[in-house]
Amino acid sequence: MKYIVLLFSLAIFTTCSNNKFVDVSDIKIQSELVRFDSLFYNTDNLDKLTSLKQSYPLMFPSETNDSVWLSKVKSLEEQEIYKKATIVFGDFNKEHSEIIDVFKHVKYYYPEFTAPSIFTIISDFDYQYPVLYTQERLFVSLDMYLGADEKEYEMFPKYLVKNMVEERIKVDVADAISKNIIAIDRYDRTLLSQMIYNGKLLYLSQKLLPSSGDSLLIGYTQKELEWCNNNEADIWAYMVKKKLIYSSDDKLLQRFISVAPFTKFYLELDQQSPGRVGVWLGWQIVKSYMENNDVLLNELMANNDAKNIFIKSKYKPNK
């Protein structure tokens, strides 16, 4: 009987220790939400603009004339984009709640974290930085999350547009904060270093967004994710055969790390592959490292020795 109880207790412990969810319900977060998009695009005269500038001086560079700001407010095109954002996001309560949940998870793993104020803005389609984090403030560009079928996005390639959706806001928030946490060796220019760094970003985002699936976290469709899972052994064999892992060739970053429609293996299968396969592979290596080593999350994030992580990961691709 005691033996059965022991086994049962061990099973419970194992299940709990492998559970990706942590209890953040008691963590208190203070974070002001500033609907700056609404404040700005309803500023239709100089008096209102002056008042807004006094309230949020950092949002108005001194070298920019007031006439420029008023011109933006009265622009029919910008007003149209603002109206679309209002329709898509409404009061922004759902997204705000999700962002606060990210903050709670950051606070759980990093108690010294202080939640920033959240500013919603219209950024003139700044696709490179849809979310900006400056420790004190977090800026969310609503015009970059209007939906994959938004006609305003016709100027962008489809591989970018697929992630211009509301669901990505919380992911980009987690990614922006993670980049402020994770160390990288600036002197290590190898492909492996970039793979591990980006793998750590995804691993941390996974901890901050435990309810989100892998495809959302990396920005793949389910089909693209399945392609990586099904071809993991071949991807790894290619990397090893071509001696790419420890190469410092800058072109490898464009081929395997940068956002792109597909990964450039220079093979017939290129068009079938998603972009950033090196990032996905780095994620698998980091997962293997954490499974095979008794390491705390903050210790992993502080470790910028990519080679050390790779060796200790004992990584073996799924066949």
Word description of this protein:
This protein has a four-stranded mixed sheet with strand order 1-2-4-3. It has two domains: 33-181, no CATH class; 191-313, no CATH class. With 319 residues, it is mainly alpha-helical. The chain starts with a helix and ends in a 6-residue tail after the last helix. 53% of the residues lie in helices and 5% in strands. It contains 16 helices and four strands.
- What percent of residues adopt helix (DSSP H or I)? 40-55%
How many β-strands, per DSSP?
4
- What is the tally of helical segments? 16
Spatial strand arrangement across the major sheet: 1-2-4-3
Distance between the termini: 41 Å
Structural class: mainly alpha
User: What shape does the CA trace take?
Assistant: globular
Nearest-angstrom radius of gyration?
Answer: 22 Å
Strand composition percent: under 5%
**Low-pLDDT segments, ≥5 res:** 1-18
> SSE order, as H and E?
HEHHHHHEEEHHHHHHHHHH
Biggest sheet, in brief?
A: 4 strands, mixed
Overall residue-averaged pLDDT value: 93
Number of domains: 2
